[in-house]
């Protein structure tokens, strides 16, 4: 999936869905980190992808809060 497609998907989510997705991705990130330590990594690029997805969601949430406070 291309970056602009991911951005569109994030913008479609509600604030509550963004919060739930962030929690889910952080749990996935913990799992991937644990796999790195135990050397059971299936896809080494997954860690970076998850971090970028979390950053996208946090950026959208911050932008919405800034727009709401204006």
Summary of the model, kept short:
The protein is mainly α and 70 residues long. It contains three helices and no strands. The model has no long low-confidence stretch (mean pLDDT 91).
Tell me about this structure:
- The protein is elongated and about 50 Å long.
- The chain is built from three helices and no strands.
- The chain has a single domain (3-69), classed as Helix Hairpins.
- α2 packs antiparallel against α3.
- The relative contact order is 0.15.
- The longest helix is centred in the middle third of the chain and has 24 residues, at 15-38.
- The model has no long low-confidence stretch (mean pLDDT 91).
- It has 70 residues and is mostly helical.
- The protein has helices spanning 3-12, 15-38, 46-69.
